[in-house]
Amino acid sequence: MSRALKGILLVHRYLGLALSLLFLIWFLSGFVMMYKDFPSITASEKLAFSEPIKCTDRVVQPHEAVALAHLPAKLQSIQVGAILQWPVYRLQDADGNLKTVFADNGKALSGLTPHHAVLVVKYFLGAETKIERVVTTKELDQWTPRTRFLQHMPLHKVHVNDGVGTVCYVSSATGEIIQKLNRGDKFWAWLGAIPHWIYFRDLRIHTQAWRDVVIGLSIFGVVMSLAGIGLGIVRTIKAKQLHDRLSPYKKKWFRWHHCLGFIFGVFVFTWILSGLFSMNPWKWSSDSALNEQELLQWQGVDISASDVTVSLEKSVANLSQYGELKELKLTYAAARPYWLASYANSNTKLLAANDSLAVPQDSLPKAALITLAQKLKVNQSIKETNWLTDYDDYYYNKHRTLPLPILRVKFSDALSTWYYINPSSAAVIKKVEQDSRLERWIYNGLHSLDFHVIFFRRPLWDVIVIVLLLGGTALSVTGTILSAKWIFRKAKKKIIGIKKQG
User: Which residues contact 197 (CB under 8 A, 6 or more apart)?
Assistant: First the structure.
């Protein structure tokens, strides 16, 4: 055996010892991930069950609320919602800190109590909901393992006595339910998302350490897969030359592992490689959100409550005639402030916040959006504009819940930048450049097989993915068995050797 071939064999063998079981777990959890994500409360669910906004009397205006909350003029977001039938401002400063101010009296929410958290949940789930217990925590747990939950601490975990173990996490900072799950959600998460993403609480709360672990394991997995493919090709060529057969191995598990690797090895390699790219290692792919400069160009100004000159009660009355108003968010386009109103049925309206005679709009006109888009790339020309009524290869999601229609604007700059603009929210909701388009195919395409020709054609996509996952699982099973047998043989020889010495 040549030195190079022996080196490849050793790389595949020893990495296989360490990673075969992990590969098996990744493939098995992949079946679950096809249908069950990590539990979370969806935006539409949160909107549907949140309280409607009502302003029957004179209330504190946005600029007054900001002053009473002792926040700087420059804010990251201003929203209006309701807690237990009281209208509230939810304000977020430039550092991401949250403050809630009651619109009726201007008092800041100093921390929602467990009693009020129960009332919020009862409004959400129904007045007859039976509460088992409330646990208040200041620490992230397995179901809130990301740092974005820290700004809502402490959290009130309201356990519901409904037979399925529902738990609602209520933010003491905003009075909102920010997580909801039950025993079924937990069960599938432990079989799917948690092992698949290595989403264990004690690791996941340390974001950089978690990233390093996943990236490191994926890199070793890619090397192992490549070594296996190379070794398999060499062994197959030699077997054909000497014995005119596919595999040189006579032992069952070696032969099965070789044959399965010959059929599914490339898929396993691309699947692990795409999993690596899902972590955007070394930050090689650009962000899909606007950067600070682009956001300011689009908005025209920084978010400021003083730009709202129409009273909140008048705006709410104007917008409430179109449905049950659940949320207002201050947004900007070309330096003009708008209230983006969201309703129980997920419909939206835009209302100018600085014009008392303004009429709510369903969306901004296409021509105005194109003119505004040009400001994002002042020195670049627009190459193409498209009004999309269906998803393309870069704007889509599995459940087809992203808003349509969408305006796609392509620029002729060096990065070939595309912007996806939602006319209903007057916002740029996605940006893609050359590297992010490449990343989309390397990650999503190879990992989820979300190619347009099959992704929305169920159950064709399901059948193809299941077959490939079965192949990867079988290959991992044979690798795990061979690794276990090798360890057993080494251990047995060592034990025999010790006995002989004794």
Answer: 38, 214
